[in-house]
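Example (one chain per record):
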Amino acid sequence: MIISDNRASGDGVDVLTDVDFALFSDTIFTLPTVPATPSIPTTPPAAPVIKNLTFKGGKKADGLIGGKGNDYLNGGLGNDRLTGGDGQDTFAFSSKLSPKNVDWLVDFKHSDDTIRLSKAIFSKLKKGILSEDAFCIGAKAHHKSDRIIFNEKTGALSYDADGSDTKYAAVKFAQLNPKTLLNADDFLIA
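Predicted structure:
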């Protein structure tokens, strides 16, 4: 793991690369002086509560796990496993679509969470909340206006640039649990 801290005070944004596992905290623990005959504490110190995390995966398969706050998870490239945890989480998609770049949204909740789609990648969608005409539940697009297709039987979430599956084939970009409650207002295009 490589951590780049851009400010001497420790405040600000840190950049992490090549991370296999990480646990973050804004709490500083001061360790006591060790006595000549050390004793083992009977209870460990309480773990800090971590909220409002931002994660971006790399080029390979990543496992990103949010905390109790409103987390932002972007898997980047690769087939990633994204878990938001509690809170109002955002699952972001801003990398080129391909069968080698399908993220699993482990715990997406319609009542709390948002799927954010990059306008640069999902170019046939209008910015803002996804229109109901551009959202379809089923195995494939039913109308030329359908762009985001959710197969609630399998949990596959796909993008069809022309709504016809002829000129542009639908591309699966995410996997949700089958029968997940999902509709157009769960998507933000930015």
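Caption: The radius of gyration is 20 Å.
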